[in-house]
Amino acid sequence: MNMTHFRPTTARVDLTAIQKNIEGLRNHLHTDAEIIAVVKANAYGHGDVEVSKAAIEAGVTMLAVATPDEALHLREVFSETPILVLGAVPISFVSFAAKEHITLTVFSMDWLEAASEQFSTLDVPVKVHMKIDSGMGRIGVRNEHEMLTLYHGIQSSPQFELDGIFTHFATADEEDSTYYDQQKDVFIHLVNQLPTKPRLVHAANTAASLLKNHVEFDAVRFGISMYGLLPSTYVGEHLPFTIHPALQLETEIVHVKQLKKGEHVGYGATYEAQEDGEWIATLPIGYADGVLRGLQGQEVLVGGIRVPIVGRICMDQLMIRLPFHFPVGEKVVLIGKQEKEQITMQEWADRLHTIPYEVACILTARVPRVYYK
Ligand SMILES: *Cc1c(COP(=O)(O)O)cnc(C)c1O
């Protein structure tokens, strides 16, 4: 859905890149394990509905989100595709999950008992995946006793139907695989204690599905690299196939002027022109769009060259210093490619002392997403 908007600032999302990344993973996997598209947080900022459409076209069989609201948002559009909520959900959501056939993650006997009591009958059973905490320390059952208690609890509650079991790795993107191996062993050991295996056993996130062997089980959960981004630089150095970044953040120059030496730019007047005739351009994008103030000094692309942001980034605008005159209307790329130059989310992440995941998530709803193939 490309809606009309009156702003040159856009995040252009290449749906073909997303499909190529899924095909790359499909060809890399040694088994016919299913691919679950992780589209939580508005598909890592890329747009949940359009990304999910492209991913389903490319063959993913399930969508995974973090919250009940994210699941309901997708269910409005995708009436058939299984949707798994990876996080804890409030008991009040159970009746909605039944009505909208949304698959839930369960890991607590207390939760199961309270939910079974509150919803003693449901028209259709709610599908659930049991979560095992094999070392992430987040949510999940932590030993055989907890797991079997929950397993039998689910089997004896007609309101619930066991559809899967999964775990999540804490270090799959690192070179040292000791902790990863421990987690994998714990998971395999526990799954083997189940009286019957559910339909979907899954563990691998992007890093594990790209780098590790024999961890596909029945499905992999493909998040960050579906968007063409890397879980870590270590994974980047060992990529089994080329991935394609899907998102390009663009705007246009809305004003250009020449400063005299000593004139200032921006709040706090922190930038001072070093010489007469410096060209300063204004861009209609700021921290309310996700260009955080911590990105002061970051470069952007104009005419295929790198130019610096100068002065403090404002809420809605920022200023750049041009080497020579460019006209109003000139295209500017903040993330993505222009001619031979490229600025990646990793570059922003390095400057902000964070990871590309966080950069993708901070582009706010005010930035229109424009889709193309
Ligand atoms: C976010 C998430 C993923 C996806 O991780 P990536 O590193 O982006 O592939 C997979 N599983 C769970 C449980 C998650 O929370």
Automatic annotation (TrEMBL):
Q: Which residues form the active site?
A: K40 (proton acceptor), Y267 (proton acceptor)
Instruction: List each copy of the Alanine racemase C-terminal domain by range.
Output: 246-372
Q: What class of enzyme is it?
A: isomerase
One Pfam family name is Ala_racemase_C
**Positions contributing to substrate binding:** R138, M315
Q: Name one GO molecular function term.
A: alanine racemase activity
Which cofactors are reported in the record for this sequence? pyridoxal 5'-phosphate
Keyword annotations: Isomerase, Pyridoxal phosphate
Pathway noted in the entry: Amino-acid biosynthesis; D-alanine biosynthesis; D-alanine from L-alanine: step 1/1
- In terms of domain of life, where is this protein from? Bacteria
In the Enzyme Commission scheme, what number(s) does this protein have? 5.1.1.1
Residues with N6-(pyridoxal phosphate)lysine modification: K40
Catalysed reaction(s) here are:
L-alanine = D-alanine
- List, alphabetically, the SUPFAM superfamilies matched: Alanine racemase C-terminal domain-like, PLP-binding barrel
Q: Write out the similarity annotation.
A: Belongs to the alanine racemase family.
> What's the stated role of this polypeptide?
Catalyzes the interconversion of L-alanine and D-alanine. May also act on other amino acids.
Q: Which PANTHER family match?
A: ALANINE RACEMASE, ALANINE RACEMASE, CATABOLIC-RELATED
**Record's protein name:** Alanine racemase
Give the source species.
Kurthia gibsonii
Q: Which gene encodes it?
A: alr
